[in-house]
Design brief:
With 248 residues, this protein is an alpha/beta fold. The protein has one domain: Uracil-DNA Glycosylase, subunit E (3-Layer(aba) Sandwich). The protein has eight helices and eight strands, in the order βααββααββαβαββαα. It has helices spanning 29-38, 43-55, 92-95, 103-114, 152-168, 179-189, 222-225, 232-246, and strands at residues 3-4, 73-74, 80-84, 132-133, 135-139, 174-178, 205-207, 213-217. The strands form two sheets. It has a six-stranded mixed β-sheet with strand order 2-5-3-6-8-7. It has a two-stranded antiparallel sheet with strand order 1-4. A hairpin with a 5-residue loop joins strand 7 and strand 8. The longest helix is centred in the middle third of the chain and has 17 residues, at 152-168.
């Protein structure tokens, strides 16, 4: 079991590059990460992420925003793959690491720490010492979307990245899907043909044809945590279940 964080630098905004869509290549996680960071395949998302990085939120006006696609990170021998929706405009789009620097991160990594999947309970910036054990965290869409709502075409442009990550993360046994968007994305990227289509729910489980398991959880967004739809106990239970199913 190895603990790992993200290995790439996280500073500045992306220079102008030609558009690129996911290719069939990428022989390593590092190569795939570099390809993700360079992607400009979705004009609406490129414009939004870079606008946010220029204009900033007042609380972070002295920080240099990342403003690029945000790759996944974690243990290359992960048995649990956590799949969220997209980077937050002033979270991952600012810090350069998914689920970092916002309230969702506070909830997710605290739960992962309690389950033994992370060495600390906080994720505030890329140099904060966070390391994941037997876990890898990513998003279905790698750029921050306006109103946190990616379009179907943007999702479809991005899902091949997660598919390739999973191919490289050969030890993954459980895909922990945060929210209905993550659940639907996981069904799509794994080419699941089950009918009727498995329904999302907190604690929902669906075994894929290859034996891997999709596990559903309400997303740790403020909309869910502030209203009590998702409690710490509920999140702890589903993260612990992911570990148990994966044999962690």
């Amino acid at each position: 079991m190895r603990a790992s964080g993200s290995a790439s630098p996280r500073s500045g905004c992306a220079p102008a590059r030609s558009a690129c869509a996911p290719s069939a290549g990428g022989d390593s996680l590092a190569e795939l990460e570099a390809e993700i960071i360079a992607c400009r395949a979705c004009p609406r998302l490129v414009a939004w992420r870079e606008r946010v990085a220029r204009e900033k939120r007042a609380a972070f006006r002295d920080e240099q925003y990342w403003g690029r696609p945000v790759p996944g990170f974690g243990d290359p021998e992960a048995r649990v793959y956590v799949l969220g929706l997209a980077p937050a405009a002033h979270g991952g789009n600012r810090t350069g690491r998914v689920f970092t620097g916002d309230r969702s991160a506070d909830w997710l990594f605290a739960a992962m720490h309690r389950a033994g999947l992370a060495n600390q309970a906080t994720s505030v910036h890329v140099d904060d010492g966070l390391r994941l054990r037997d876990a890898f965290v990513a998003a279905a869409v790698r750029c921050a979307p306006p109103a946190n709502k990616p379009l179907p075409g943007e999702r479809d442009n991005c899902l091949p990245y997660a598919r390739r990550e999973l191919a490289l993360l050969s030890s993954v046994r459980v895909i922990l899907c945060l929210g209905g968007f993550g659940w639907d994305a996981a069904l799509r990227l794994t080419d699941d043909a089950t009918r009727p289509r498995p329904r999302f729910g907190h604690g929902a489980e669906h075994e894929l044809a290859d034996g891997r398991v999709l596990l559903g959880s309400y997303h740790p967004s403020q909309q869910n945590t502030f209203t009590g739809r998702l409690t710490e106990g509920m999140l702890d239970h589903v993260v612990a279940r992911a570990g148990a199913l994966a044999g962690v």
